[in-house]
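Researcher: Checking consistency across runs. Here is carbamoyl-phosphate synthase (glutamine-hydrolyzing) again:
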Amino acid sequence: MRVAYRTFNKPIFGICMGNQIMGLAAGLEAYKLPFGNRGHNQPAVNLTNGQCVITSQNHGYALKDDVMPSGWQRYFVNANDGSNEGIRHTFLPFSSVQFHPEAKGGPQDTRYLFDSFLTQVREFKAQRQELSEQQECVMGNAAQSAEPMAARA
């Protein structure tokens, strides 16, 4: 995962253990929760907008987030016990949540996480396509300007 952070220039969205793996690779530590967070009605607060969402959780560990590594920020926090429920990179398209957004704790409370990730993927794909077209244009122009020189020689 550490190598991916440096070289994988694509969006990443981790869920559950994916949150722990991303956090460990970023330099955070994991710790065992006293009781674990289990249930389909666990409140988590999105720290970027203050929205409290109802989530489905089933984990006994959390990331220790009192000091965040450079480039990372807390994303979600459990409203009951204050434990970490998500992290995100400040400028790269990497984010993760400890809870299960696919399990629909609230009817559609966390659907926007998937919408956001898909938007990041589409933007990445569009940027990659644009770069590819620019490279083709440059290579095409280079080939055209080389032809007359070869013909003159």
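Researcher: Does this match what you'd expect to see?
Model: One thing to look at in this run: The longest strand covers residues 29-46.
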